[in-house]
Amino acid sequence: MSSIDNRRIAKNTIYLYVRTFISMIVSLYTSRIILEALGIVDFGVFNVVGGVIGMMTFLNGSMSVATQRYLTYELGREDTGNFNKVFSMAVNIHLAIAFIVVILAETAGLWFVNNKLVIPADRLFAANCVYQATILSATLGIIQTPYNASIISHERMYIYAWIGLGETFVKLGLVMLLAHYGGDRLAMWAFWIFTVQLVISIYYRYYCIHYLPGCRYNRGCWDRNLFRQMLKFTGWNMFGTAAWALKDQGASVLLNLFGGPVANAARGVAGQVNGAVRGLISGFQTAVNPQLTKTYAGGESTLTCRLLCQSSKISFFLMFLIALPLCAEIDFVLNLWLIDVPKYAGIFSILVILDSLFDTLAGPMITALLATGNIKWYQIVVGCILLLNIPCAYIWLRLGGPIETPLIVSIIFMIAGNISRLFFCRNMLGLSLREYFKEVVLPIMIVFTFGVISMAIVNHFMEDGWLRLFTSIIVSITVIFGMAYTFGLKHSERKAINDIARKGLLKLRIA
Predict the structure, then answer these.
(1) Nearest CA to 53 among 152, 163, 127?
(2) What is the pTM of this model?
(3) Closest residue by Cα to residue 239 from 381, 26, 84, 39
(4) What is the model's pLDDT at position 46?
């Protein structure tokens, strides 16, 4: 691969952005109805029980990354025959992982839910129903992983766009029904979520088998050498994934232990807000990730580093564009969105969004490092940094720290993890740290500083309300776009944007 396929990245980004924007609007409304229909306690129970399963599926998370890496790598080498071999091996391995997760979930996980989590006695039966439905959903997701990875590897993002939109509107319809359901809404909602996932997985599997070459499962395919390679990659990646799962889901457990279901409800609301904002840049990174792996597989390390810097910077700008006015007006937005805002929801939302802002810089680095396949020491070092998150947060909470302590500690270790990733990118990819600081860190610092100052001025001179909200949004867009275009982009990047804009205007005039 001699060049970065910018047209494909742009096209796939547009598909995923349209999907994400519509899904974000609908999902925020859906979340409001869910919280109203379930109530704060049941909403908190739903989130914390799901977090227990999330901690158990770290093995699948590791294998999912390995599967996508190996499938994309083979496409980058243009080896279709080996693609099918990797796909078939991945299916075999994921079936084994699903079996392991079910055993763990029905033993240790079930004991933990019934004996350690803070759940009201009258909601314990419903919590167990949610737990069993979540196990089924998780198992389905594990078995489905090779098919989803194949779609991403082939960069068929429009499939995700259409199916994602369909899923969003189906869930909206189910939420409307839930509000009028007279039985146990918590248990019923968990069952409906599983049903939706089942239908979607059937369609994805059908599409892969019929439209993607190499995605037909070969039962007799077994390559011991390939298995060892994937297992070795997964083994080291599993360490990092486990640390990540403990960082994220472990925080929910700590919040439950020190704050009860109310704190989990606030964390759930923060997660919904962050998911809506994060979705706006996840589409871009999902479109870029296959290109990062393919450029490296094609022997183009220089292009890989260039794309890494560009995607890191643009990802941050895209998320900051929405995150800045949202954090500045979080209390007003939450009161508009929700009828009953859980305690701590505002501060939790701000902290989670800040954590995700720094995580946007990690995404391209992680993808590029995984493309090398040599991840042993990278995962050991970064994994150990992330593993410090929960014990440090626990000690701080025991010493009387505020309930938001796990989220504050998470930001600190996210920054430390990013610094360590940079050094690995220098050693493994040839990334120049000086170039990264000049092309990524410095532009981000400039845009971030001017953005925060502009919001502080707006908040100082205006009263809380609709007018300030609209003003914050307009100022945010104006300042961030202006500063990012002037100071955040190189001359060649500005020229590329100008060319795209001219072509778009020309097409509109012709039409």
Answers:
(1) 127
(2) 0.69
(3) 381
(4) 77
